[in-house]
Design goal:
Helices cover 75% and strands 1% of the residues. The chain has 284 residues and is an all-alpha fold. Strands 1-2 form a two-stranded antiparallel sheet. Helix 1 runs antiparallel to helix 6 and helix 1 crosses helix 7.
Length: 284
């Protein structure tokens, strides 16, 4: 006979493992997403890109990685797209790590665009599965772990890629695909792909998540407005901090380190917020 306490501990352990797997996926997803700013100076020289073309590449990545997310999330609420969990991160890694072999501008735009789509897929996919994989009593902490994973991956990418490109050639970039393949194997071995992405109520697909109803939800709109204001200051500081430091006589290495410290601070703040929301309540 299995003791109830030990059985409950096993359930919690499995949920924790699934949460950490999804957070690790968010880490790698945002890690690869932040490759382009570091690769651009090298690709500009190799492909003779103008500043305008470089800006268009950044805009393309931003549009595909961010603007597509609500539409993909809507589809995941309606249809079970859980199998994409095995493909999204490796596909994005392959696209961006192929940059070292690309010889013309159109192929670079295609690779960057596809990499952005892979990034856009994982965010609603991981969030949807997390809501079902996490222990309900620890949902705030689980969500903060998931968000912190992305912040840490985004923060580590500049330092890791600068070191890699200084030590190896661009043709060695495919070596960085290996972590994505390993994580995909862990996803396959876990039970995460048995969870559904569809929005359900008592086992039935919910009909309360139509796009017009979501756009008329005042609480959701206020929450998104708050997120927009938070992103406004966060992105402004993370974008302009290196330029500010360099303009005041610091070198690019110091600027990169300070940016990483800022982004890791954001990740730690998210963890603290998740812990406090579980302990004291979201509104408090």
């Amino acid at each position: 006979m299995i003791h109830p306490i030990s059985n409950n501990a096993a359930v919690v352990s499995r949920h924790t493992y699934h949460t950490l797997l999804l957070a690790s996926g968010h880490l790698l997803n945002d890690f690869y997403c932040n490759f382009l700013p570091i690769l651009l100076p090298l690709l500009t020289l190799r492909l003779d890109l103008s500043l305008t073309m470089s800006g268009l590449l950044v805009m393309l990545l931003s549009a595909t990685a961010n603007v597509l997310q609500p539409f993909l999330g809507y589809l995941m609420d309606k249809y079970n797209l859980n199998r994409l969990l095995l493909l999204a991160i490796p596909f994005g890694a392959v696209c961006i790590c192929s940059a070292g072999y690309i010889k013309n501008t159109p192929m670079l735009f295609l690779a960057v665009g596809l990499s952005g789509i892979a990034t856009a897929i994982y965010h609603p996919l991981g969030s949807s599965l997390l809501s079902k994989a996490a222990v309900p009593e620890r949902l705030g902490l689980s969500l903060s772990l998931f968000v912190a994973g992305g912040n840490i991956g985004f923060a580590l990418a500049p330092l890791a890629l600068v070191w890699f490109t200084m030590s190896y050639s661009l043709e060695a970039l495919p070596l960085l695909i290996l972590p994505a393949l390993f994580l995909s194997l862990l996803y396959y071995q876990s039970n995460l792909c048995q969870l559904s992405t569809t929005a359900t109520i008592s086992g039935r697909v919910s009909d309360r998540h139509s796009l017009p109803q979501l756009l008329k939800n005042p609480a959701l709109l206020k929450l998104n407005a708050a997120m927009g204001l938070r992103a406004w200051t966060h992105v402004a500081l993370s974008t302009l901090l290196p330029l500010l430091l360099i303009s005041r006589g610091n070198d690019s290495v110091i600027a990169g380190i300070m940016l990483t410290i800022f982004l890791i601070g954001a990740a730690l703040g998210g963890l603290i917020g998740g812990f406090c929301s579980d302990r004291f309540g979201n509104k408090r």
